[in-house]
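Quick one, C-alpha cells below. Sequence please?
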C-alpha cells in the first residue's frame, strides 16, 4: 500500500483526497519508483485548484515531477537502486504523478540524478529549475554573452525566475529581476540580480518599438508582459519564453522582429528529448551552487500540498517548494 493525493471529478468540480492505494492503482510503465521527493510548481497549483484544465484524466495523482529510487525495472537502462528524476511527459496531467509514495512510469522518461546529488537536490531544481536551465541554454545557443548587456528575468521570485537568476549570475551575466513582490529585492540580489524592477513597468500599453534595454530575457509570464519585453530588446537580442502566468495571449507586432532582429525562442520542458535533458541536468550539476539552491528552497510534507498549491497560484510562494514524500 502507498499513500497519495488523488483528484477526481464530480458534478460540482474537482475533488482532492488523500488515499491509500495498492500497486493496482499505478499506471502502465516498465519502471517502478519509491518516490522520496516531489515539488510544487505553478502548473501543479493550477491542477490541484482546478484554475486551469491541466488534468486530462480522472481520477489522477497530480505532481508533474518526482525523484526517488528504482524498486522494479524491466527497462534495459535502469535497475533497482538507481536514483532517478522525472519531469514532464504528461506526468501529473494524464499519467499518475509525483504526489505519492510510489510511481510506475516509462523508463524512457527518466534521467539519472546527477552524481553527488540527492533526490531532494533534484527536486529543489525540479521542472522549474530544469526549465530555467533550458532557457539559459537557449540564450547561449543564440550567441548571448555577458558582455552584450543586461538580461531580464520576469516572474523573478518564482521557481523558474529564481533558478534563472542564480544560473545567470554564476555565469557572469548582469541580471535585472522583474517582480510584483519588491519586498523580495534583497533575496533576489543575493541570488545574483543586480537590478530590481517592478513588474508594473511591463503592464502598460504595448508600443511597436520601445527604448532598447535588454541583451536577452527569460520570460515565464507571457501576455502583455512578454509583448512589452519584446518591444524593449536590443538589436539581435533573444527572448526565451517558457510560461503563461499572466495569460496565453501575445499582443505584439512584427516590428521588433524585422527592424531589430529580435529572436523569440519557445522553451518546451514537457517533451524535451532525453539527450537534451541529460545535457541540461549535466549543466545544472556544474553551474548551480547547491548551497544557493538550498537558500531558495522550502520543504513541506505531502499533507501541505493542497495549501501550497493555492498559495503558489496566488503568487504567495517564492523560490522552490520541495515535498518530502518519504
Amino acid at each position: 500500500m502507498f499513500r497519495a493525493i488523488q483528484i477526481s471529478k464530480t458534478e460540482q468540480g474537482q475533488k482532492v483526497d488523500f488515499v491509500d492505494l495498492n500497486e493496482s492503482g499505478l499506471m502502465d510503465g516498465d519502471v517502478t519508483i519509491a518516490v522520496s521527493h516531489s515539488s510544487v510548481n505553478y502548473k501543479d497549483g493550477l491542477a490541484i485548484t482546478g484554475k486551469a484544465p491541466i488534468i486530462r484524466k480522472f481520477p489522477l495523482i497530480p505532481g508533474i515531477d518526482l525523484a526517488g529510487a528504482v524498486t522494479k525495472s524491466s527497462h534495459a537502462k535502469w535497475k533497482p537502486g538507481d536514483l532517478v528524476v522525472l519531469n514532464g511527459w504528461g506526468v501529473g496531467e494524464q499519467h499518475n504523478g509525483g504526489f505519492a509514495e510510489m510511481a510506475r512510469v516509462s523508463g524512457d522518461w527518466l534521467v539519472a540524478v546527477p552524481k553527488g546529488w540527492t533526490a531532494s537536490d533534484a527536486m529543489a531544481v525540479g521542472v522549474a529549475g530544469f526549465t530555467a536551465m533550458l532557457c539559459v541554454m537557449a540564450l547561449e545557443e543564440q550567441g548571448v554573452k555577458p558582455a552584450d548587456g543586461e538580461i531580464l528575468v520576469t516572474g523573478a521570485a518564482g521557481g523558474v525566475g529564481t533558478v534563472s537568476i542564480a544560473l545567470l549570475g554564476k555565469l557572469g551575466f548582469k541580471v535585472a529581476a522583474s517582480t510584483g513582490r519588491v519586498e523580495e529585492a534583497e533575496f533576489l540580489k543575493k541570488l545574483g540580480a543586480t537590478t530590481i524592477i517592478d513588474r508594473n513597468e511591463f503592464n502598460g500599453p504595448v508600443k511597436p518599438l520601445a527604448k532598447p534595454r535588454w541583451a536577452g530575457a527569460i520570460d515565464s509570464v507571457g501576455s502583455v508582459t512578454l509583448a512589452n519585453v519584446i518591444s524593449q530588446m536590443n538589436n539581435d537580442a533573444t527572448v526565451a519564453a517558457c510560461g503563461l502566468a499572466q495569460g496565453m495571449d501575445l499582443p505584439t507586432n512584427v516590428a521588433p522582429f524585422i527592424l531589430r532582429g529580435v529572436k523569440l525562442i519557445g522553451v518546451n520542458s514537457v517533451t524535451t528529448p532525453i539527450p537534451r535533458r541529460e545535457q541540461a541536468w549535466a549543466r545544472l550539476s556544474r553551474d548551480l551552487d547547491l548551497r544557493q539552491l538550498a537558500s531558495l528552497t522550502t520543504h513541506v510534507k505531502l499533507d501541505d500540498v493542497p495549501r501550497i498549491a493555492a498559495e503558489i497560484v496566488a503568487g504567495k510562494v517564492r523560490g522552490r517548494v520541495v515535498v518530502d514524500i518519504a
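The first strand starts at residue 2 and ends at 10. The mean pLDDT is 96.
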